[in-house]
Design brief:
Layout lengths: L13 H14 L12 H8 L3 H14 L2 E4 L3 E4 L6 H6 L1 H5 L3 H14 L4 H19 L2 E5 L4 H15 L4 E4 L3 H6 L5 E5 L3 H8 L5 E5 L5 H9 L5 E6 L2 H15 L4 E6 L3 H10 L2 E4 L4 H10 L9 E4 L6 H10 L4
Parallel strand pairs: 3-4, 3-5, 5-6, 7-8, 7-9, 9-10
Antiparallel strand pairs: 1-2
C-alpha cells in the first residue's frame, strides 16, 4: 500500500508534494494501469490535507494524462501509449513485442536502487545519446574491391574500442558523410589521400592506421623447410595478394603457397588437405579450425594452424582511443 508523507514545514507546497508522490507511484507501477487511486476522503485522512486540495491534485494528474476520472466510480490510472489499445497501433512494439516489458523492468530496477525518475530519465537519455553518436562516430573506409580488409578492421576496432563502427566503401564515403555532421573516418595509409579529399570539405577528420608488422609470421615463413606447403587464409583478397608478393620475395619458389578467402569453402578445404602449415587472420581462424576437424579422417597429418596477430597495429589502436577520448 502506498504511503504519503507531507512535510508541512517544507518550502515545496503540500499540493506539489502530493502530486510528485502520486506521479512517482504511478511511474514505478505501485499503481499499475487501471488501478483505482484512493478517494479524496481517504487521502485527506492520511495526509491531513483538505479534500479540495486533493481534488485539485487529481485534476492536475488528469490534465497530464496520467489518470482519468470515471463518473460515479473514482480516479483510475490511465493506460499510456505502450499499453492497452495503443500497443496494437505501435509499429515499434509490433516489431519488438517484448520491448515495453524490458523498459519497464529496467526502470523498476533503477527505482528500486533509489534512483529518482528524473535521474533514471537522464541515465536513459545519456546512454541513448552516446550510442546514437557512436553509431556515426567511427567509419572505416576501404575500396570496395577489397571490402574484406575493411571487415577485418571493423571487427578489430569494435572489439578494441567498445563502440559501434560502420564500414563504408570508399566509393560511397562522400554520400555517407553528407548524412552526418560529425564523425571520424578511419582508413589504412593506402587510402588516406582519397579519404582526406572527400572528408576535408565537411570538416571531418581522417585518421590513418598502420598494419601490424607480422614479424613473427615472417620469421616463421623464413624457417619453413623447402618445398613444404604453406596455406594462407584471410577475409581480405587484398591481404592475400600482398602476402603472395611478400612470400615470393622471401622464398622465391621454395614453398608451395596456397591462398584462400575464408568464404570460399572449396579453396579452404583444398588448403587444409594440401598445406603442412596454415596461417589465418583472427576472423578466419574458427572456420579453418573447423575445416581441419571435418577433414581429420582424410588427413595423414593435420596441418599446423597459426592465428596471426591483429590486422591493425597496436600503436594505431591506442592512438585512435586517445583521439576519441576512450582511453
Amino acid at each position: 500500500m502506498v504511503r504519503y508523507h507531507i512535510q508541512p514545514d517544507s518550502e515545496i507546497p503540500a499540493s506539489k508534494q502530493l502530486f510528485d508522490q502520486i506521479q512517482f507511484a504511478i511511474a514505478s507501477r505501485q499503481y499499475p494501469p487501471g488501478e483505482k487511486l484512493p478517494s479524496t476522503r481517504q487521502l485527506a485522512m492520511e495526509t491531513g490535507l483538505h479534500r479540495n486540495t486533493i481534488s485539485k491534485v487529481y485534476r492536475q494528474l488528469e490534465d497530464t494524462g496520467l489518470v482519468e476520472s470515471l463518473a460515479g466510480s473514482g480516479i483510475y490510472v490511465k493506460a499510456q501509449g505502450h499499453e492497452g489499445g495503443a500497443q496494437r497501433q505501435s509499429p515499434i512494439l509490433k516489431q519488438y513485442p517484448e520491448a515495453s516489458k524490458v523498459v519497464q523492468e529496467s526502470l523498476d530496477q533503477l527505482l528500486g536502487q533509489g534512483c529518482s525518475l528524473s535521474e533514471a530519465r537522464e541515465l536513459f537519455l545519456a546512454e541513448i545519446d552516446w550510442r546514437l553518436r557512436c553509431s556515426a562516430r567511427v567509419l572505416v573506409t576501404v575500396e570496395s574491391r577489397d571490402i574484406g580488409a575493411g571487415e577485418l578492421m571493423v571487427q578489430e576496432l569494435e572489439a578494441a574500442l567498445g563502440i559501434p563502427v560502420q564500414l563504408v566503401p570508399l566509393e560511397e564515403l562522400a554520400q555517407t558523410l553528407e548524412r552526418t555532421n560529425s564523425g571520424t573516418v578511419v582508413t589504412s595509409r593506402y587510402f588516406i589521400k582519397q579519404a582526406e579529399e572527400i572528408a576535408a570539405p565537411k570538416a571531418i577528420r581522417v585518421i590513418p592506421v598502420d598494419i601490424h608488422d607480422y614479424a613473427e609470421e615472417i620469421q616463421l615463413i623464413k624457417t619453413l623447410p623447402k618445398d613444404s606447403g604453406l596455406g594462407i587464409v584471410s577475409l581480405s583478397s587484398g591481404i592475400l595478394r600482398v602476402v603472395e608478393i611478400i612470400i615470393h620475395s622471401l622464398r622465391g619458389d621454395d614453398l608451395l603457397l596456397m591462398t584462400a578467402q575464408v568464404h570460399d569453402k572449396y579453396k579452404v578445404n583444398a588448403v587444409v588437405r594440401s598445406a603442412r602449415t596454415i596461417i589465418s587472420d583472427q576472423v578466419s581462424y574458427p572456420t579453418v579450425k573447423q575445416a581441419i576437424s571435418d577433414a581429420r579422417d582424410d588427413l595423414i597429418r593435420a596441418p599446423k594452424l597459426i592465428c596471426s596477430e591483429n590486422y591493425i597495429g597496436t600503436k594505431s589502436i591506442n592512438l585512435l582511443k586517445r583521439e576519441l577520448g576512450l582511453g
